[in-house]
Amino acid sequence: MSDFIRQSIKDGVATVTLARSELHNAFNEVMIAEITAAFAELARADQVRVVVLAGEGKSFSAGGDVNWMRKTVAYTVEENLADADAMARMLRTIRECPKPTIARVHGAAYGGGVGLTAACDLAAALESAVFCLSEVRLGIVPAVISPYVLEKIGPGQMRRYALTAERFSGATARQIGLVHETFAAEADMDRWIADTASALMANGPAALAAAKEVITEVSGLPWDQVQAQTTQRIARLRVSPEGQEGLKAFLEKRPPNWARGRG
Questions:
Q1: 108 burial class (0-12, 13-18, 19+ CB within 10 angstroms)?
Q2: Do residues 244 and 114 both lie within one domain?
Q3: Per-residue pLDDT for 16 more than 90?
Q4: What region, left, alpha or beta, does residue 115 occupy, with left being phi > 0 and alpha being psi -120 to 50 degrees?
Q5: Which of 182, 187, 194, 252 is most buried, by the most CB atoms less than 10 A from its CB?
Q6: Whether the predicted model's global pTM rises above the 0.85 cut
Q7: How many domains does the chain have?
Q8: Which of 86, 87, 96 is nearest to 51 (CA)?
């Protein structure tokens, strides 16, 4: 049993809900471990096709729990390293989940909450959501979350928001690429998430996992290596069982086996 998160699975969509609403879903070492374990488990679950990360109560996640941060003040460098490694594993487990992941953001998303948003493949937010890279106000930096946030918003925007620690809206988060869609009402956001999950589940599960991998692999590679990586991958996928089924289904004008019964 988890103390600080809840999980549910319905029609192939798993929802991981941060459940420390009284603390605006701020996380400590226990919650970090629970999120990591949940995504690792869902990555192996054949019945799960899409994972949604949400927050209970008024906020998505306000970042680090004050009581947890108070404990870390007395940590040695080695203890702080172990602590940071645990958070890094959590974010990497989310990002490398073979299933598409969607962040559902409302209320506050501060510090590590921005990292959770950025680690997901897709993100939807309320227009009223408030984001902040607040670390420098505490004399620290958004180091562990930086690879994920940089991937979404780029170094130019990262410099601004990481240095100023200014708050920004859901609309700005969409403008700079942190989230993909914004909504005035939660019902509209949930409808978009459901429609997007349905669209994702019309695609080959192995192909989705491979697409996530290839995007990571080719990013920043020299062009000669990109050619080798991409040509080898598509050649392998075309002869794979899923690739053969998908191509035959297209040519035979029928749904592939993973999409039958949908739509």
A1: buried
A2: no
A3: yes
A4: alpha
A5: 182
A6: yes
A7: 2
A8: 96
